[in-house]
Amino acid sequence: MTLKELPTKLDIDVQGALERFAGHELIYLKYLRRLCTDENVQAFSNAQIMSDEQKLLNLAHTLKGITANLGLYSLSSAYSYIVDALRDKKPEIIPMLYQHALDLQRKTLEILRSL
After folding, report:
1. Over 90: is that where the pLDDT of 13 sits?
2. What angle do CA 35, 86, 101 make, to 5 degrees?
3. Cα within 13 Å of Cα(54), Cβ side
4. Of these four, 23, 33, 65, 77, which has the most CB atoms within 10 Å of its CB?
């Protein structure tokens, strides 16, 4: 898959992200691929994270920023919803939001691995 084909598979703003990367496609691709092995992504994927609200908040906040910079706005929003729910003290919706973010993360990483 090429960078130009990516928006047909993902909700991604390639052009906006490329502007943040000063038009350097190879560097942008490097960081998209790096997301697949990012330690924060791996930690978020561990279901035990749900038992530590502070760690979940930190990871979701970090991943929100990383994915926003990469133009992965749907995934960034999914992490953002978790951050908001934790800050607003709404623990009852965290499992649903976590599962949604996890599903979207898996789908996104699967597609990014084909770059």
Report:
1. yes
2. 35
3. 0
4. 77
Q: Which two tokens stand for residue 3?
A: 């960078």
Give the contacts of 106 (CB within 8 A, at least 6 positions apart). none
pLDDT tops 90 at residue 47 = no
In the numeric block, which tokens belong to residue 36? Answer: 């697949």
Confidence of residue 50 (pLDDT cuts 50, 70, 90): confident
Residues 25-46 as b or e (16 or more Cβ within 10 Å = b): eeebbeebeebeeeeebebbee
Mean pLDDT of 74-103: 97
pLDDT at 32 over 90: yes
For helices 25-35 and 94-112, what crossing angle results, to 10°? 130
Overall residue count recorded for the chain in this entry: 115
